[in-house]
Structures are given as C-alpha cells and as structure tokens.
Amino acid sequence: MPSILRKLIGLVVFLLLWEAASRSGLVQATYVPPPSVVLVKFAGLFGNPQFLTDVVSTLLSWVIALGLATLIGVPLGLLLGGVRLLRTVSSTIVEFLRPLPSVALIPLVISVLGSGAQTKIALATFAALWPVLFNTIYALHEVDPQLVDTARSFRVSRLRRLTGVTLPSIAPFVLTGVRFSASVALIVLVSTEFLTGGTIGLGQFVYTWGSSAGRMDMVLAGTVFAGLFGYLVNIGFVAAQRRWLVWAPAGGAM
C-alpha cells in the first residue's frame, strides 16, 4: 500500500472517530465541535479579511524569526563547534539559556522592546536558535576526517576547505535543525500572540474567538490552519533536502 494512502486512511479514521464522539455526545459539541463543522469554518476563513490580516502578520514574523535564528545559529555553531576553547568557555551560559521557556521571558522582553511585533519575533528567534545551533555543532563532529586530511595534504586554503568540505558535509544536519526550528518558531509566535494581548496575529484570532465569543468551531478552524501550515512547511523542507542535498538522505541529528 503506498505511503500516502496509509496516511490518508489514518487521517480519515481519526476524523470519523472525532465526528462520532461529537455527534454521539461522548464529548460536548460546544467545546469540541465535529470536524464537519470545523472544516466548513476553516474553508470560510479564507474569505475573512481579519483572519487573512492576522495570518500575514504571523507568517511574516515567522519568516523573520526563522531567518534570524538561522543567520545567528549557523555561524555561532561553526565557531563553538570549531574552537574548543570558545565552546568550553561558553558552555555554562549556553546550557543555562537553552532550557529557558520563551513564554516565561515575555514580561522581560516587553519591558525592553515594548509590546509590538518585535517582541514575538525576538522570542521566536530565541526559541528557534537552539535546534540550528546544536545541529551545526553536532554536524562539525561528523565531518569525515579523511576529507579534511586530504584537503590539507593538497594545501587547500581554509576558506576553500570550509566551502568545499565542511559546509557540504554539515548541510543536511543544518537543514534538519532549520526544519525543527520552523515548527518551534511558529509555536512560540502563536503562543506569544495569544498571551501578550496584542491586536493582530493568528494567536489573537484564536484568543478573541475563544474568550469573548466562545466559538470553539472558529478556534479549532484557526488551529487547523496553523497545524496544516506547519505540516506543509515540514514536507517542504524534507523535499528540499532530498532535491538539493542529493549526497545525504533526508534526516539529520535531531
């Protein structure tokens, strides 16, 4: 049976069970409306100007946060992974910052940056930085030493070794880190929009319909959009890795 067919069967079974649970009263339809209702509301969202504005705000912030996390994480990972002294000196502060939940930093970031889009972008960048950083550090230890030794024996310059040996070798791991960071950034963005009480964003859309209107069908419709977007982004990264990094399978350190 093709893989895509198995996935579709699993999805259909899940939706049927959800529909049956809501329609039978096993769960209250007020709080968990059936998927037949949610999917209709989901389709109608694309004709809602406010929803489209919220989505554009969230996705633009997501692109910026993921780009910043990559631009910071890859060079920093190369430094920490390539210079043992620097890695040792910074290990304590890195291990201290890594487990900090981004949403717990909301009051601090608001006091420093204000309550605009810069707050959610900063928090999403902070959260998305770590998968990229640690995958880059890990990847440097996986570079084939024979390739490095061969390049050195032919007196290849450091810059040429970096671009011709190191970067192609670590690229699959880095792309995997970016793929994980993409999901993390989206989660933190929506959570921050939900918690900070802003006026725009997918998180605010969910908060408004859930708290003031009590419309769980609209809440779940917005949630479906976030989940579908994250799923498509993940598929896109896997496809890009298979297409462009033909010397390595899709996957990586994480």
From TrEMBL:
**UniProt name for this protein:** ABC transporter permease subunit
Q: Which InterPro entries match?
A: MetI-like, MetI-like_sf
GO CC terms in record: plasma membrane
Membrane topology is: Multi-pass membrane protein
**A biological process from GO:** transmembrane transport
What PANTHER family does the record tag this protein with?
ABC TRANSPORTER PERMEASE PROTEIN MJ0413-RELATED, ALKANE SULFONATE ABC TRANSPORTER-RELATED, MEMBRANE SUBUNIT
Q: Which residues cross the membrane?
A: 59-83, 95-115, 121-141, 186-207, 219-240
What SUPFAM superfamilies does the database record attribute to this sequence?
MetI-like (SSF161098)
Family membership noted in the UniProt record? Belongs to the binding-protein-dependent transport system permease family.
Q: Name one Pfam family in it.
A: BPD_transp_1
The species is Solihabitans fulvus
Q: What PROSITE patterns does the entry give?
A: ABC_TM1
Give the record's keywords alphabetically. Cell membrane, Membrane, Transmembrane, Transmembrane helix, Transport
The chain positions of domain ABC transmembrane type-1 read 55-237
